[in-house]
Every structure is written in structure tokens, then in C-alpha cells.
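seq:
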Amino acid sequence: MSAYGHQMEREYSAQSLSSTGDSEMGSRYTTETGIYMSSFAAMVFISGLVTVGVSMMALLISLAVMLQSCENRNSGVLQTYKDIDLYGYCKNYALHAELNSLDIDFFPATCKDVAIKYINEGQYMRDLNITVSIAEDFFSRVRPLNDSREIVLMDADDFFASENLHSHLLMRWIDKDAFHDSSRVKNVFAMKLYLKLQAGGWPLILISRKPEKLRDDAIEHLASVGCSGWSSLIMRTDSETQMDSQKHFSRQRTALQNEGFRIIATISSQMDAVRGPCLEERIFKLPTPMFSYKMEDNVESTNL
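struct:
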């Protein structure tokens, strides 16, 4: 073999060894698989995760707020039902006490707040308005005869300040301002009904628990509040001063009927005026402030 041939053989052998070495060396490497992601894509991905997390947190907070709101609303509804039940209980208790002339000491202490709210929140005024509307509806369907013998009997004391007529039961529970406000409201609605009846041509007879010696003061007060044009004002005589007020009203109704008058209706805020015999007429009982129902039998105050 020539020198050139030997040289070629050596070069071939060297290349073969080199290839073999590379092959052996390459066997030392392993192929790793994965997802390639650029830094921008990674940033977008992480931002998306943060957004989803924030949204979930906001959703949880909203649900918590909604649940709390529903709970508060349900609590308010339950409290309203409790207030309604308590009002009904106290109102019926007051009616029972009024019918039986019970003292305020028989009332449950829990009804104190109800008595205050009854005036301050306007329910007393609404009750008065309803009662007056019922009376007005009745008188819109009947007309007095021309013989002037059909009369309407009204409690004159409903036009006076209640603090001089009541036994102050309610004053022991609520402030004086609220009590005086209720008195003024009653006077306004009693006067409204009085003027309505007068405009309808009804002869009006007023009856009071006050003694006869206060007649001049009573007439002056009635005129000052616009109550004029009545047919008669009946007051207690000296012999009736110690008489029970219910008996006084019953006695005067009987006397009027014996004189030939036909009582079409009796109107009063007090139970003593709408109880007893000779009650063939229509009765309109004006509501009173809760627990303020008991009238003094002997009223001799000159402060009207």
C-alpha cells in the first residue's frame, strides 16, 4: 500500500473514532419535554389568575352582604309582626278595661310604650278620623224631620281640655305634651263633626258633667272654639253633683225622651255617655288615648 493509502486509512479511522465518541457521548444526554412560554405570556396568565381571584372575593363579599341584608330585613318583618301583635293585645286590653272601668294599675307594663306610640305616631288621630267618617256617612243618608223633635246628643266635654275632665290615668305614663296634643286632636275632630251636623240641619243638644254653676264659663268656652248654635246645654244640677256620670247621662236621655224628643244619635268619647237605658239611637264612640278613659264624677274646675 502506498504512503497515500496509509494516510487515507488513518484519516478514516480517526473519523470513525470521532463518530463513535460522539455517539457514546450523545448517549449521555436525555430529551426533556415541556411547554415553552415567553415572559409576556406568563405575565398575562398570572394577571388573569389575579383577576379571577379578585372577582371570586368580590362575589363572596356580595353574597355575605346580601345574606346580612336579608337577615336584617327578616328581623325587621318579625319585629313589625311583634309590634302589631302587641298593639292588638294592648288595644283589646284597653277596651276591656274601659268597658269595666278598671284602673290603670291593671294594665300590663309592656303596654306603656304602645300607649305612647299610639299618640306620637298618629294612630290615635287616624282612629278619630275613621270614626268621624263613619258618623258622617250615616248622617249623609238620613235627614231630620221638620218638627225639630229629632235631635243629636253630643258630649259637651269633648270640646273642653281633657286634663280638667279625666282622672289623669294616661298622665302617669306619658309626657304632658303628648297628652295635651291628643286632647287637642280630639277637640278638632269633635268640632269637625259638630259643624257637619249643624250644616245638615240637625238640632244639637250638648250634655256636660260640669255643675250648673259653671254654665257661664262653659258657654264662653264653647263660643271661643266655634261651638255655637246648639239647641240646649244640659249640666249637672246641685242635686246631681254627687251622681255617677253614667247615671247622669241616662237620666237626662230619659228626660229628653219623656219630653217628646227622638234621639237619633249619641256622640261621645267616654263610655259613661253611651251606656245605660234608653239607648235606642245610633251610638258613635270617639276613640280615646289608650288607657285614658275614666272620667271624674265631680268636676268643679273653673279652668276650662
